[in-house]
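Q: My labmate handed me this sequence with no annotations at all. I'd like to see what the chain might look like in three dimensions before we decide whether it's worth expressing. Could you predict it?
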Amino acid sequence: MADEAKTTENKAEETAAVEAPAAETAVEAAAPAEEVKDLQVLKPGMVVRVHQKIKETTPKGDERERIQIFEGTIIAKKGQDVASATITVRKVASGVGVERIFPLRLPTIAKIEVVKELRVRRAKLYFLRDTKKKLKEKKPAANKAKA
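A: Here is what I predict for the chain of 147 residues:
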């Protein structure tokens, strides 16, 4: 009988040990869901600043980390809620158009800051590559009810 009690206790401990990592993974699984809510705010036509961590090696051989900021207009967004969702950001630097594609789940991205929102009627703003056109800024929402 004593042996049976010990084995029952051991089984209880083993199941508790097995369940504990499952709880941790549930917490980890909940964290990306919160990130998804923040990522849905990003839309084509928004001017954003992407803060990305860059590791550099100094001439002495030391590694240091700095944050590089890339500011531009989102011209495309692919993969709404999936892990491989990306945004394409375009800016004009010294008269030359520069585009970068950022995976939104990239661990080196420190933050994405929205500077302003422009008025667009397209999901993909590839026409900005060819023309010198600029997008108009969105007007603030005005109250339609007049008193």
